Amino acid sequence: MITSKNNINSNSPIAFFDSGVGGLTVLNKVKKILPNENYVYYGDTLHMPYGEKTKEQLLEYSDNIFKLFEDMNCKAVVMACNTTSSVIYEEVKNRYNFKLFPIVQSVSEILSQLPINRLGIFATRATIDSNAYQREIAKYNKNMQVFGQHCPDWVHIVEENALSEQKNIEIVHKDLEKMLLNNPEKIVLGCTHYPFLLEILSQFAPKEMFIDPAESFAKKIKNELESSGLLNTETKNPTERFFVSSNPQLFRQSAKMFYDVKETPELLTFLNAV
Ligand code: DGL
What we know:
Radius of gyration: 18 Å
CATH architecture of the largest domain: 3-Layer(aba) Sandwich
Order of helices and strands: EHEHEHHEHEHHEHHEHEHEHE
Largest sheet: 6 strands, parallel
Strand content: 15-25%
Number of helices: 12
Bound molecules: D-glutamic acid
Structural class: alpha/beta
Number of strands: 10
Low-confidence stretches: none
Strand order of the largest sheet: 4-3-1-2-9-10
Number of domains: 2
């Protein structure tokens, strides 16, 4: 049962959402530095991959999810999804009754300060087409060259828990080879699903070359909640609640590399989102 809204305080939950298991790479980092919070997570597996969806579709899916989070009195919502941060954040940022944290906008300043000139970004088609990373990084550093490349198969590989299949290792290798033609000094894993593929990527290039922005994102979330007086100081037994829009068992299985989802997620779909 979902409780009704309008009583947000520091004990209220922090909500996360993504198209599937990707956002767990962010939840994992946030939970390490904020272990006393109550968490809610929504994985919109029915509509995955978000990277192939239009802006209108993303607005519709996220509106349903955000209203759910409002009904659950969430104090903050983490857009643990580069695609929605890139495509719809500006439009929705003042629409809801909670603090909204977008990943791309939150980590670009840190990325802009890297002591390098050539930065690669692996991300979904929608994130790359939006040029959000280029735009945000250029606000702080106009000299950094940013090369975006989309990787159409990677989200499916992660969601289907098919990381060990040889054909998938070859797909990841091929995409990496293409990016390396730009001679990037570092490559950002600009989709929250991609850190699941770090072990494969590091078979073909040094691990230190890849940046998972989740760590600096998590620090930023902590600092901002702290300065708004919203950190949970009371909860002794924090709770976690997971929702998905399809295939709860597969979600739990695919999640394992990053997160131990203790109970099978609750199945929750919205009638207007087809
Ligand atoms: N994990 C999300 C992102 O960071 C969405 C991936 C997808 O569903 O295409 O962009």
